[in-house]
Amino acid sequence: MGSFKKIALLLMLSLPSVSYAADFNREQIIKLLKQASKDQPANLRRKDLKGLNLSKLDFRNADLWGADLRGADLSYSNLSGLVLDLTVMVRINLSHANLSNVSIFGVSMMHSDLSYANFSGSRVIANLDYSNMRSANLTNVKWGADMKNQPMGLMHVSLNKVNLSHANLNNADLSRSTLRFANLTSANLNNVNLLSSDLTAADFTKANLNNANLTSTKISDANFTGTTVKNTKFNKVQGLESSRGLKSNP
User: Fold this and answer.
1) Which ranges of 36-157 does DSSP label H, i.e. alpha helix?
2) In the 3-class helix/strand/coil scheme, how is 178-230 assigned residue by residue?
3) Predicted confidence (pLDDT) per residue in 151-183, tens digit
4) SS3 for 137?
5) Which residues of the chain are modeled with pLDDT < 70?
6) Cα 9 from Cα 68, distance rounded (Å)
7) How far is Cα 176 from Cα 167, in angstroms, rounded to an integer?
8) pLDDT of the residue at 22
9) Cα–Cα dist 239/124, whole Å
């Protein structure tokens, strides 16, 4: 069974056998947030919030663990420091949202708008395939697989066909991630750790890969045209012969 199938099964088992509590509307949630504090956070735990307009709200004093946020609009919202493990976030809009230092584990965020979002310092093990992360801030993120804690097999971040163009991944840990066909054009990947990642057909055109670690990566059909690779580690890479642009780089 694949890692994310196991996560999905874990999510299903963690949900209550009865239906979620009554839906909230935007006004009710605003009221809850105004009354909330760090000691008594707004209880949105496992609540059904599908499709709601929750943009520009401050959720820092809220408990959103396991909430259903499918199709919700949280653009420009502040979720900094929250634990969002086992939430449901397919097709969510988090454009320009503050997700710094959040924890997101066992989650599908496929087909989501995460453009210009701030994920700095976050810990994410989730499926973000097909999402838009253009110009997102991923500095100092810890999205690499934790090899000391793999009770269900390899748990890693999936970024297949994700738009990461112009994103800032300075000092990011994406070890053992999958970025097949990802768009990383003009992205800043200075000092990024991509150890043992799958970069098949990824586009690094004009990206900054200085000081990056690509040891044991798969780079078949990847495009490195115009990419800067000063002090970049390409040890034991697979598919070098079919990649483009590396021979012309220093």
Assistant:
1) none
2) ECCCCECCCCECCCCECCCCECCCCECCCCECCCCECCCCECCCCECCCCECC
3) 544 578 999 999 999 999 999 999 999 999 999
4) strand
5) 1-22, 147-154, 247-250
6) 16
7) 19
8) 40
9) 28
CA–CA distance, 83 with 123 (Å, rounded to integer):
10
Specify the 3-state DSSP secondary structure of 16: coil
Q: Are 44 and 15 in contact (CB under 8 A)?
A: no
What single letter denotes the amino acid at residue 44? L
How many whole angstroms separate alpha carbon 161 and alpha carbon 201? 10
Are 240 and 246 contacting, i.e. CB atoms less than 8 angstroms apart? yes
* Alpha helix stretches (DSSP H) within the chain: 3-14, 26-35
State the residue for tokens 């499918």.
70
CA 176 to chain centre: 14
Q: What is the pLDDT of residue 94?
A: 98
For residues 47 and 29, the answer to whether their CB atoms sit within 8 Å is no
CB 130 within 8 A of CB 152: no
Helix/strand/coil for 26: helix
With H, G, I as helix, E, B as strand and everything else as coil, classify residue 174.
coil
Residue 68 pairs with which residues in a beta bridge?
48, 88
207 Cβ neighbours under 8 A, 6+ residues apart: 184, 185, 186, 187, 188, 189, 227, 228
Q: Where are the alpha helices (DSSP H) in 16-118?
A: 26-35
